[in-house]
């Protein structure tokens, strides 16, 4: 049995990832602020083991306890051959120049996009370091970590930090007795709520908004389902972890 932990499963890529992983041979652990009742019903119908944790990942102080509870559930299904972690949950907003942001907006963005993946990964590695099984960490990053646009300073900084963090994990785990593999992936332009958010930003706050609107109107955004299938291909590949940063999924 594969144990697969996925954050941000209420919608978008996270929901599509969970849907495609639903299988009797998998134990899915889903985490999101809003419980996805559709996923739970489908998992029950298809006899897939699923534990769903209704949790706000911006609450960094409770993540240690959350991870303890997750691994208590994993211990129940102790015959696992693999444990995978997909840090997917993210937020784009606020999209505006840094001098117009309030402290709470910056903190919330960095908590969800960077600190939560770091703390969850730290717990994941601590709680699995004795396990001689296939361990993989997939961090969903963004080309915004590399290609900088105005009014996305919080998001771009967080994703650049996530890339660096992934590189650090890669180096450290090469020294571990039972190492985990890690990679950060740029999933491309996807038709999710993050894209909807950026298309709704006034041009005076985000000068490139019309370009994003045009991409949507021309049908150049990938679907969450397509993107999830490509991410799963990367995650289960024999080559996973050979490159710490994967900049394309095509």
Structure, explained:
The protein is of the alpha/beta class and 250 residues long. The chain has a single domain (2-188, 223-246), classed as Rossmann fold, CATH 3.40.50.720. The chain has 8 helices and 7 strands; from the N terminus they run βαβαβαβαβαβαααβ. The chain has helices spanning 12-21, 37-45, 63-76, 103-128, 153-173, 193-199, 209-217, 224-236; strands spanning 2-7, 26-32, 49-54, 82-87, 134-140, 181-185, 245-246. Strands 3-2-1-4-5-6-7 form a 7-stranded parallel sheet, with helices on both faces. Strand 4, helix 4 and strand 5 (134-140) form a beta-alpha-beta unit. It starts with a strand and ends with a strand. The model has no long low-confidence stretch (mean pLDDT 93).
Nearest-angstrom radius of gyration? 18 Å
Strand fraction equals: 15-25%
CATH topology: Rossmann fold
Biggest beta sheet attributes: 7 strands, parallel
Task: Return the string of H and E elements.
Answer: EHEHEHEHEHEHHHE
CATH architecture: 3-Layer(aba) Sandwich
Q: Can you tell me the CATH superfamily?
A: NAD(P)-binding Rossmann-like Domain
Low-confidence stretches: none
Q: What is the domain total for the residues?
A: 1
Give the C-level CATH assignment: Alpha Beta
What's the total helix number?
8
Structural class: alpha/beta
Distance between the first and last residues' Cα: 29 Å
């Amino acid at each position: 049995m594969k144990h697969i932990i996925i954050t941000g499963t209420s919608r978008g890529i996270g929901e599509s990832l969970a849907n495609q992983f639903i299988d009797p041979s998998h134990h899915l652990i889903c985490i999101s602020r809003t419980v996805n009742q559709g996923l739970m019903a489908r998992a029950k119908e298809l006899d897939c083991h699923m534990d769903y944790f209704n949790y706000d990942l911006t609450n960094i102080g409770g993540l240690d306890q959350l991870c303890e509870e997750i691994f208590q559930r994993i211990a129940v299904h102790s015959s696992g051959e693999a444990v995978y972690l997909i840090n997917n949950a993210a937020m784009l907003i606020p999209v505006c120049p840094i001098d117009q942001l309030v402290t709470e907006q910056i903190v919330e963005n960095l908590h969800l996009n960077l600190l939560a993946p770091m703390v969850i990964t730290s717990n994941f590695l601590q709680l699995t370091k004795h396990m001689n099984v296939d361990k993989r960490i997939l961090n969903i990053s963004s080309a915004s970590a590399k290609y900088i646009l105005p009014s996305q300073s919080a998001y771009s900084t967080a994703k650049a930090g996530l890339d660096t963090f992934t590189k650090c994990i890669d180096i450290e785990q090469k020294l571990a007795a039972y190492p985990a593999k890690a990679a950060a992936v740029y999933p491309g332009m996807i038709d999710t709520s993050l894209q909807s958010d950026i298309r709704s930003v006034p041009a005076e706050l985000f000068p490139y908004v019309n370009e994003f609107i045009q991409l949507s109107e021309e049908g150049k955004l990938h679907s969450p389902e397509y993107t999830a299938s490509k991410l799963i291909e990367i995650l289960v590949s024999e080559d996973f972890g050979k490159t710490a940063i994967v900049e394309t999924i095509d």
